[in-house]
Structure formats: C-alpha cells, structure tokens
From TrEMBL:
Record organism: Celeribacter halophilus
Protein name per UniProt: Glycine/D-amino acid oxidase
Signal peptide positions (record): none
Organism superkingdom: Bacteria
InterPro entries: FAD-dep_OxRdtase (IPR006076), FAD/NAD-bd_sf (IPR036188)
Residue ranges the record marks as coiled coil: none
Keyword set includes Oxidoreductase: yes
One Gene Ontology MF term: oxidoreductase activity
Keywords: Oxidoreductase
UniProt key word Nucleotide-binding: no
Recorded GO CC terms: cytoplasm
Residue span, FAD dependent oxidoreductase domain: 11-355
Length: 376
C-alpha cells in the first residue's frame, strides 16, 4: 500500500531546537516544502544546554510512559544507523533517593517492573560491582534502580545531522532571524512574520520555541500552563573516567559528554539563580562548586574536576508537568510543541507532529497532551 499523500504543500517551523528540526526533517521526507526559522543558531535554547537523558524512569502516567518508551525506541533505531556515533550512548541510567520518608525507590522499582520497563534494584555493594565509575558507598540503604536500557544524546550534534538532511532535501533553514511569530489570515495560521519585516508563507505552522511557547500562544488569547524555571547546567573539563551510565542522585545528576567532560545539574540550583536587568543570569560561585563536590562523592574514582562553563536558561516545563503537543483549537493551522522531555521525545514527536500537520490526522497517543486541556 502506498504511503498517504500530504494534503499540504508547505510548512513553516518556528524554532531550531530538537522538536522543530526533527519535525522539519520528517516533513521534508514526506515531500513537504519546509522553511525553518530560528532567532539565533540552531540548538541555541534548551536543546543546547540539556542533560539530554533518554529515559522513562520513575513514576508517570501510563500514556506519558508509552510516549517516552516510543521515543527511546526511535533512538535505538538511530543507533543502528550510526553505530560508531560519539553523540549517542546507551550506558544505562542509575537513580537513588535520599533516605527518609520521601524515599520512593522501592515503589518506583515495583511500578517500573509492573510496566515491563527493565529495572534492577541494587544495593550499594552491587552498584560498585555492576556500574563502572560509581561509588557504591554513596548509595542509600534502600538501594538504587539501574535501568540498563537508558542513555543520553548530544542534541546539538543530532540537530546538526538533521539540519544537513533538511538542506539536502531542499528545505530552507533561516538562522539569526530575530523573533518570529505566526502570521494569521482570517483566523488561520498562514506562515510566520519576523521582526525585521520578512514574511514566510506556509499551509501550516509549528511553534517549537521551547519556553516561549506559552507567551506566544497567549498573544492569540490561548492559555497554555507554564511552570518553566531557570535551569543550571555545569560543564567540567574532560577527564579520563569509566562512567557510562547517567546518574540521577539526590543532589546531582551526572553524565559524560562526547568529549569526556561531565555535565552536572539538579533542581536545587534553580532557587539560587537571579536575573539581571539586562536579561542575563547570575549564580553564586558556591553553587557550581557544590555540584562539583556532590559529583565527586558519587563517582569512583573521584575525579579532579573544574568548571569550564555554566549554562543558564529557561527549562521548558508545562504547568501540569505533562507535554503539550498538537494543533491549537483556537488557531487552526498552528501546532505547538512544548515539553520538558525534549531529548527523549525529540524523534518520536517529530514523526507524530509531521503526520498530524501533513496528513490531518490526530494520533491517539497525543490525546492526553493536547493544548486545549488548559482552556477554562
């Protein structure tokens, strides 16, 4: 049976992160003429400063789990196409909680096993023997969960590969375009308008501008709940170390980078960020140093680490924590992609959104995540 024929000829994508570029690549594969517009270089937003942990760990709704599971499967297929890639690694994921009444490891382990998600509950001693590079003595008495199917991706590298595909297929990628907003004609999105006066026409439009999506929707009277914080990602110098797994521990999350450095983050530094009048951000020096100290506690051997960069910026998180995908009911022709789990969902959502935009279908997997759930 032949593939369905798109009912559109052209599309405009606003946003050059993983959602925008992945959707654009899928649309070009379907024969749709694509124009992608970004306000700076590609991956200059959340995609460029993400831990990019590929997972569906912990407890979340079954529809969200299934969507993330599909996302991880797409990366497994991608790893077969790029078997020697240094920007994609499936070294597993390891997580543990603080000891005390808020420790959920036992419940999370049972929840994951009941979903068929591979999980192993390990003691600290077992972690030391089975997970290279981790200090088993740092694991609390309740134990740690090893999810061996998890990994990480370097999103800027992946965005670059997809951008090459878009260009080769005749798509247009316009960077450093300044702010762009949907153009509306008779109540329908018909392209994009840039602040410099340029206009780009398209049969459909995708807003994939990360944390800016709720505000952009609000200019059209459309509510999308927003819980976006300012996140901190500390980058260290490269070191020789055996760690391959992504670590999610009580005070620091850790992963290697493609050049052998470490990325470190956690939720607690978000409370220490202040924004300057010029729009920039400040962070007390002790915060990055504490992340370094916490990383040394969970790593074995404990490496000598120094900070070479601290990345700041909004971390897109919808108001209810669940992703927001699909066409805006109040603005036909305009689709949105707004989610915290950009890395895990990057490939699958490019696929599903492209089909919704080009074929006019509504994927059942996306029904719980439609933007109209925020309407009064």
């Amino acid at each position: 049976m032949p593939q369905p024929t798109p009912h559109i000829d052209s599309a405009v994508i606003i946003g050059g992160g993983i959602f925008g570029v992945s959707t654009a690549a899928q649309l070009t594969r379907m024969g749709v003429a694509v124009t992608l517009i970004n306000d700076g270089p590609l991956a200059n937003g959340a995609s460029g400063r993400s831990l990019a942990w590929l997972n569906t760990a912990r407890r979340r709704s079954l529809p969200y789990h299934r969507l993330r599971q599909a996302g991880m499967e797409r990366y497994r297929v991608l790893s077969d196409a790029y078997p020697n890639a240094d920007w994609l690694c499936f070294g597993g994921g390891l997580t543990w909680d603080m000891e005390g009444p808020k420790n959920e490891i036992s419940e999370v382990y049972r929840y994951e096993r009941n979903l068929g998600y591979e999980a192993h509950l390990l003691s600290g001693e077992e972690v030391a023997h089975k997970v290279p590079g981790v200090n088993g003595a740092a694991v609390t008495e309740t134990g740690a969960i090893l999810n061996p199917n998890e990994g990480w991706v370097d999103l800027p590298a992946l965005v670059s590969i997809l951008a090459e595909e878009i260009n080769s297929a005749g798509g247009k990628i316009i960077t450093d375009a300044g702010k762009a907003t949907p153009a509306v004609t008779e109540g329908r999105a018909t392209g994009a308008r840039c602040d410099d006066g340029r206009n780009f026409e398209g049969d459909v439009v995708l807003l994939a501008t990360g944390a800016a999506v709720p505000a952009m929707a609000a200019t059209h009277g459309i509510k999308i709940g927003d819980g976006t914080p300012i996140a901190v990602l500390v980058e260290t110098q490269p070191v020789d170390h055996p760690l391959r797994a992504v670590l999610n521990t009580p005070f620091v999350a850790v992963r290697r980078t493609r050049n052998g450095a470490f990325y470190l983050d956690s939720d607690w530094p978000e409370e220490e960020v202040t924004q300057r009048a010029d729009g920039g951000y400040d962070l007390p020096d002790w915060v990055a140093e504490k992340l370094i100290d916490e990383a040394r506690k969970v790593l074995n051997p404990a490496p000598d680490l120094s900070v070479i960069n601290v990345h700041f910026g909004p971390k897109p998180i919808p108001g209810d924590g669940d992703p927001v995908f699909g066409e805006l009911a109040e603005l036909p022709g305009c689709f949105v992609a707004f989610s915290h789990s950009g890395a895990t969902l990057g490939l699958i959502m490019g696929e599903l959104l492209a089909e919704e935009m080009a074929l006019g279908i509504r994927h059942s997997m996306l029904e719980p995540f439609r933007p109209e759930r925020f309407a009064d």
